[in-house]
Amino acid sequence: MIIIIDECLPKRIRNFFKENENYQVWTVPQIGLQGAKDRDLLDELDKKNIDCFITIDGNIEYQQQFKDRKFLTIVIRSYSNRFQDLVLFKDDIKRALDYIGKYKLIHIPTKKVKNE
Fold this sequence. Notes:
This protein is an alpha/beta fold. The protein has a single domain, classed as Rossmann fold (3-Layer(aba) Sandwich), CATH 3.40.50. It is built from four helices and six strands. It has helices at residues 38-47, 60-63, 83-86, 90-96, and strands at 2-5, 24-27, 52-55, 72-76, 105-108, 113-114. The protein has a six-stranded mixed β-sheet, covered by helices on one side.
């Protein structure tokens, strides 16, 4: 499973997945897409056949289309992007990966799920 972490999140989030060797987890800068506009970023992620994109950008769903995306986007709803605030969502994020292929966008904590 290929997971990409948005550049607005701390790269330490990759540690959430280190115990599972089936996960390949990269950050946006690691794949050479740092600074890309959201639409360009999402288009490039589609081309890379990733399984999941994780972000904290709460506006992305209102500015971009997800209906035809090939991957699940997880939007973390947190007070900040500090690692110590995000670690509270570790288990929720990992559970959300069960919905790959079923939904296009999920909020963590789960308040809303979109299949479009």
